[in-house]
Amino acid sequence: MFFDEFAVSERPRLFYGWAERNTRPQVKSNERARNKLNGLLCVDAHSGEEYFALSPQAKTEDISEYFADLCLDSVELGYTQLCLILDNNPTHKGKMRSQLAIHLEQMGLTQSIQVEFLYLPSYSPKLNLVEYVIHLLRLRCLHHLPLGTTLTQIKQQLHEFFAANQFLSAEQVQNSLNFIFSLVP
Asked: Which ranges carry the Tc1-like transposase DDE domain (predicted)?
């Protein structure tokens, strides 16, 4: 499974600005004050099935809890091994792995599933299948929201979308993986 996280926030209140000729416009932004959530997304490299969650933060503990839930669901589906393909974000390294081991032990899953981590090279988003799905998610669900849409509404819309839809079919996943493989010399 490929994994990555992304930000989901309320829409900005100001979309344009003006400036005198030969000057740079200064558009005020509420980016820092804006409410936001972090989307956590895994995509199965065989079926294209997505495992989606929203979290107020995307710290090491949040990522390890997300992976523990993914492991629980995988065991319930009969899987005994899980391979996670991640970028080189520090929240995906040793501390997260040890926290995941603690979560799996607390859940009684240590003997039920083996988790392997594969890390993509630094600064290589084109090699991560999830990046393509996140792009589609933004195009289909986030970019054309009406002004004033609240974070609660966005959260509900995303959960409803993922409950009823899948972005990529198994064939589209295979085509995307073939494209990703063509990028590697």
From this structure: 1-143
In 3D, which of 43, 7, 58, 34 has the Cα closest to residue 162? Answer: 43
Determine the residue type at 168. L
Q: Is the pLDDT of residue 13 over 50?
A: no
Tokens coding 7: 């930000």
> In sequence order, which residues have a C-beta less than 8 Å from that of residue 81 and are 6 or more positions away?
113, 114, 115, 116
Return d(Cα 181, Cα 178) in angstroms, integer. Answer: 5
Of 44, 58, 48, the closest CA to residue 6 belongs to 58
pLDDT the model gives residue 14: 45
* Mean pLDDT of the region 107-122: 94
Residue by residue, DSSP assigns 131-170 as: HHHHHHHIIIIITTPPTT--HHHHHHHHHHHHHH--SS-H
CB 67 within 8 A of CB 101: no
DSSP3 helix / strand / coil % (the chain, rounded to 5) = 45, 20, 40
Beta strand 81-86 with 114-119: parallel, antiparallel or unpaired?
parallel
The average confidence (pLDDT) of the chain is 88
